[in-house]
Amino acid sequence: MKAMMLENEKLEAAEKVFEILEQSAAFMLAEKILMYHSLPDELPTRGFLNKWSSRKKFYLPRVNGVNLEILPYNESRLELGSFHIEEPTGNDVVDPDEIELIVVPGVAYDEYGNRLGRGKGFYDRLLSSSSATKVGVGFDFQIVESIPSEPHDVAMDIVISPTRCRILRKVKSRKR
Fold this sequence. Notes:
Blueprint: H1 7-22, H2 25-29, E1 32-34, H3 46-52, E2 57-64, E3 67-72, E4 78-80, E5 86-88, E6 101-104, E7 108-110, E8 115-116, H4 122-128, E9 133-137, E10 143-144, E11 158-161, E12 164-167
Parallel strand pairs: 1-2, 1-6, 6-9, 7-10, 9-11
Antiparallel strand pairs: 2-3, 4-5, 7-8, 11-12
């Protein structure tokens, strides 16, 4: 893996990935989207959140024990939480069934949509209980040939890097 990327390289990669996402049917059809606040080694999300937060309803995860809770994104209601990630505050937890699209960070993805996370299983537990379209995003060097998967692992429906967009499962539109 690439050890160090300059900040402008990360931002440029994020711009390309999120431009591809913006043009996808999955994004265009979704009103309620679970994003993530990025760690220093992940694809930066702040610019994308700022760009779309007035037109889409964004949510962020918050660690609660061994699970992730989903709360509305509000830039003025964030605090440093578990693992030094900015998390939403408040009690307005949302049911995962309300979310239509989940943008998922990962350490690596393969061509089949398998995802390597950070080993704690937070996202796998959340994703296994959701029918939302699951989109893995990352840098080009994070796309590998194959990742071993176990029965509890949840594969992505779409994987996007700056130079690739792989749609692995048909995206369903959910009418409410």
